[in-house]
TrEMBL record:
Enzyme Commission number, as recorded: 1.18.6.1
InterPro entries, alphabetized: Nase/OxRdtase_comp1, Nase_asu, Nase_comp1_asu, Nase_comp1_CS, Nase_Fe-Fe_asu
Signal sequence extent: none
UniProt superkingdom: Bacteria
Catalytic activity: N2 + 8 reduced [2Fe-2S]-[ferredoxin] + 16 ATP + 16 H2O = H2 + 8 oxidized [2Fe-2S]-[ferredoxin] + 2 NH4(+) + 16 ADP + 16 phosphate + 6 H(+)
Name of the protein in question: Nitrogenase protein alpha chain
Domain spans labelled Nitrogenase/oxidoreductase component: 49-447
Keywords: ATP-binding, Iron, Iron-sulfur, Metal-binding, Nitrogen fixation, Nucleotide-binding, Oxidoreductase
One protein family per Pfam: Oxidored_nitro
Family designation: Belongs to the NifD/NifK/NifE/NifN family.
UniProt enzyme class: oxidoreductase
One term of GO molecular function: ATP binding
């Protein structure tokens, strides 16, 4: 078994089974790290909780809903506006967040009366919004507040409103993935089938596991519309509460993120006989295959092929331009769940990037299995790494860039590794043909950024220079480089000196420092 033990985690021997190195000729059964288990005490996990998975990932993208958390205000703020789930109703769900604001006295005496008052107050503050999702948190779950009863009481008194209750406190599962499961099942159990669908076309789908990050859903909606397909509902990006209650009327469930939303697809198949078809909106070839599959299901393959040919002809030359300049660059692919395997193979094939590491915070065994299968030999696969392990991996692997979330991304910048936000994007959307070129552009700009090159200059012990901007001027006027590299569009590639670590990191991670900073 090719386990990898981090030096920083030798005091936690259980962590050894959560990291492996993909060796030559190994099958997946011998190269899988353990995953989706309870966090090992002492490892200081950076996972999200089950409440976060329910509210932040699945619930909040619904656009015409008051999202109210019954618990301390900190839970609500932690899951507010950290992803760019945009919508066409002026981003209502991003502008406002709601909490019952439980305090110590409510833990002692209960908070159901206060919760009811808050629900009514929220509806009165926004009279045009008639729908609400009510989320349970650890605090209110532990004291036993019956939020279902409170919600029903409000609906009896205000028949024009509808409230969905999600009982997913933070401790319900090892990670946020537990919250994905909970809200999926609760929605189909309590809300699907309570409104009849409005069918306007011959080909009707639910677009599931799509959260409209910076407009991803709009890109895919355009393709479906050009194929003559009606999207009955989107679960849940830019999705309408009432449209999602009518999911049972679709002919096909088209699933994008299998990690967060396969549960509701499987239940729709069991309860209503709606088949499930998994697609991939990232990358030219995966997207082409996905559109062909949807077209084949409805017998309209010619419409799909027309879109593929038009979009490929328009965007492929630009993608090839970036591929030529990104060839051989090393990337750590450290996203959430499904992007681990949505991106692993295609960024290598279509952009020339070499994946040297994959990790997931909340993915299951099958996510890691697909991700490892699609990345290159020698890649380091890690389940639920902490900050120290992430830093050690970067210093060992020396990647040119990492794709991850904002928290580990900020850590990467401290050791001069550029990063792109794999969760909320830098300049998305990234889906679709144009989106994939936009992703390549962001990668290129991050790696070749002159500002990033300047970060390798250690001026901590120098006097303040009198010629301001001297380093930038020298870089721009370097005549020894090829003209193309010095041009305004393409700056020279940085030369990463990973041994040149700031003093405060030397003190924090002394075992990682092979060469004293003073000798560099």
């Amino acid at each position: 078994m090719p386990y990898h033990e981090f030096e920083c985690s030798t005091c936690i021997p259980e962590r050894k089974k959560h990291a492996v190195i993909k060796g030559p000729g190994e099958d997946l059964t011998s190269a899988l790290p353990e995953g989706y288990l309870n966090t090992i005490p002492g490892s200081i996990t950076e996972r999200g909780c089950a409440y976060c998975g329910a509210k932040h990932v699945i619930g909040t993208p619904m656009k015409d809903v008051i999202h109210l958390s019954h618990g301390p205000v900190g839970c609500t703020y932690d899951t507010w506006q950290t992803k760019r789930y945009i919508s066409d109703n002026d981003n209502f769900q991003l502008k406002y967040t709601y909490a019952s604001d439980m305090k110590e006295k409510h833990i002692v005496f209960g908070a159901e009366k206060m919760l009811k008052q808050n629900i009514i107050e929220a509806f009165k503050a926004f009279p045009e919004i008639k729908r609400m999702t009510l989320y349970q948190t650890c605090a209110s779950a532990l004291i036993g507040d019956d939020i279902n009863a409170v919600a029903q009481e409000v609906m009896d008194e205000m028949p024009e409103v509808d409230i969905f209750v999600c009982n997913s406190p933070g401790f319900r599962g090892p990670s946020q993935s537990g919250g994905h499961h909970t809200i999926n099942i609760a929605w189909i159990k309590d809300k699907v089938g309570t409104i009849e669908p409005k069918i306007t076309g011959d080909y009707v789908i639910n677009y599931v596991g799509e959260y409209n990050i910076q407009g991803d859903e709009v890109i895919m909606q355009d393709y479906f519309k050009r194929m003559g397909i009606q999207v009955l509902s989107t679960f849940t990006g830019n999705g309408s509460y009432d449209d999602l209650r009518a999911m049972h009327g679709a002919h096909l469930n088209v699933l994008e993120c299998a990690r967060s939303a396969e549960y509701i697809c499987n239940e729709l198949r069991v309860r209503y006989g709606i088949p499930r078809l998994d697609i991939d909106g990232f990358g030219f070839e995966p997207l082409a295959q996905s559109l062909r599959k949807v077209g084949l299901f409805f017998g309209i393959e010619d419409r799909a092929q027309k879109i593929i040919e038009e979009e490929t002809a328009r965007w492929k030359p630009e993608l090839d331009w970036y591929k030529e300049r990104l060839m051989g660059k090393k990337v750590c692919l450290w996203p959430g769940g499904s992007k681990l395997w949505h991106w692993a193979h295609v960024i290598h094939e279509e952009m020339g990037l070499d994946v040297v590491s994959v990790y997931t915070k909340f993915g299951h065994q099958q996510d890691m299995e697909k991700g490892i299968a699609r990345c290159e030999e020698g890649a380091l696969a890690i389940d639920d790494p902490n900050e120290l392990e992430s830093v050690e991996a970067m210093l060992k692997l020396k990647p040119d860039i990492i794709f991850t979330g904002k928290r580990p991304g900020e850590v990467a910048k401290k050791i001069r590794v550029p990063y792109l936000n794999a969760h909320a994007y830098h300049n998305g959307p990234y889906k679709g043909y144009e989106g994939w070129v936009r992703f390549a552009r962001d990668i290129y700009n991050a790696i070749y950024s002159p500002i990033h090159q300047l970060s390798f200059l250690d001026i901590s012990k120098d006097e303040i220079p009198t010629n301001q901007g001297f380093a930038t001027q020298q870089m721009l006027s370097d005549t020894t480089l090829p003209e193309e590299v010095v041009s305004s569009r393409e700056m020279r590639q940085y030369t990463g000196n990973y041994d040149c670590i700031p003093d405060y990191l030397n003190k924090t991670y002394p075992y990682m420092q092979k060469t004293p900073a003073s000798e560099n």
